[in-house]
Here is the input.
Amino acid sequence: MKTKYIYILLLGLLPILNIGCEDRLNIEKHGNLGGQEDFYKTDADAMQALASLYSSWGGNYYNWYLTKNLLADDIWCGGGSRGDNASMEQLNEYTFDTDHGMVQGMYSGMYSIIYKANLIIDLLAPDSDVKKRAVAEAKFFRAWANFELVTLFGTAPVVDHLLQPGEYRQGNSTPEALWAIIESDLGDAINSGVLPSKADANDSETTIRVTREVAQAMLGKAYLFQNKYADAASILDKVIESGKYKLYEGDYDMLLHVVANGSSESMLEVQKRNDSEQAWSQMTMTFIMTGWRSDKLNISWDAMSYIATGTYGFFNPRKSLYDAFVAVEGADGYRLNSTMRSYPQMEAIGITVQPGASMIGHEGYFMWKNRTLREDCVYDASYFQALQYINLRVMRYAEVLLLAAEAHVMGGNKDKALNYINQTRTRARLTPLTSVTLDDVKTEKRLELCLESVRFQDLVRWGDAETALAEQGKQISAFSLNGAEVLFNNSTYGFKAKHKLLPIPRKELDLNPNMEQNDNW
Here is the structure.
């Protein structure tokens, strides 16, 4: 009962700690986790500090999710018209520069997570199980944020403690230094003895917070990104062999919906609640941005009975993604039709483009696995569809299987690799492979995890980005009742060698003369 009480306390604190600027200005009234000498003393203090860390992590999800998926090759940046969101178009077409707001937000957001983690690690004496677990979770999240920094920015500073006034202007680090602290923090979290494991694969309560196996999975991912294949395979095997996770056995097209919150496949999720009193304090723009451009569609009464309208259409799948599915599964593939739909399929269920309407950044394909559903809404606000209680997915078990498959392919253990990749293929109702290559893993990972925030970093580390993304943004398509057509051509577009690392935001360089820009920016 005590454990369950702690979970409830943690969830209850999240909306309270994320209500705006005023709580950070009135320190005496609301508290400041880094400014009170009498704080970080009790188990209750530890839980409050940890809730603040989880809130900071969850609060960065929107920018983290949109930025990474816009940089990949699965979607067009759409919207109501060309220029509806210029900063998102710049990411999607590779015309952004060093002062791009979303890139800046990603960079500073990771450091906000690190700061909250450092408060716990440096100021909380680990003299109780509650405090020890808070420290272990803080080390996990510090490692998670540093993983994003090293894979996206490469030379971001290492901040492994609360900085003193004379330390604020940190110089660039190296990838090696960032990887070292990632490995150290995750190792400490795993070996702390206080991170729990799930009771079984269907235990949804324990997944509210970080588990030992999630930390192991993250360390395995870090090893794989460094080409430490044997280390990655060894620790990812432990996660798989633990039996604490398994692929979701319900309908595949419900995997990213409320019904699968905390499912057997859920590893790391930002928690949401079906709480009408807290609906606005936990709102997210994620689904309103990624849903279809519903104001340009006619939706039949049958479809309206389950589809939630009022979404903006900024994430429209590319024909190239559809074609990648068809090449593996055929046009009638179970996973394909659970992931995305063609326009004729939309017409068949009573959804059509309005006469005279033109959808920018669109080729006539619609994401299905993350379609907005009425049943996912705290309030079905058709005027502003941002009140869902879908947990925001960060990592699921399918990714662990495919990370392990890659590690074993590269390490030479093809039997284990074959077993792991065939688990996701079997769930997708595909014939099992009889042999496996790295290209098989790459293809399976693209299909299984499309729009799940892994594709861009994978393309870069595989050395495939310059080819796969070379012409991204060259032509901008639009879709209407006349079909898809090229709306116009850009003169500047596409991934270049410099994009292997994102730029250190110009704002950071202006404030810190000890920092240097990444190459060619």
In short: Residues 277-390 form one domain.
